[in-house]
Amino acid sequence: MGIRDLDRIDKIGTDKETGHVVLTIVDKSDWTDEMQHLYDLQEKINVYLSYIESGEMYSDFPEYKGCEIDILLCSQYEIPLKGLGFLHKVAEVVRNAGYHLKCMEWDPEGEENWKVIF
User: pTM for the whole thing?
Assistant: First the structure.
């Protein structure tokens, strides 16, 4: 599981509040090599989009047909400014494809530990 594992969807389920299908990317990698991290994220997001657009998701989960879809990135590390800029651009591309990209990062100091980025 993680952004370099391109052979699988990390997690999939539904949000009980919104009814949206949520495909979660679990990002446990640090940002030491920002360019590699950005490349890996791009590849992983492309895998998720391909999974949806190829119809494979609907073959695996026919009950999700017609549902709104969120791709949720959960980053274990703080996302640097370059990463946030990239993710905002990707969010626009994902939105134009008819889906939503959401980002959260782990906050060990936070009361609920996950901080919503967007």
Answer: 0.91
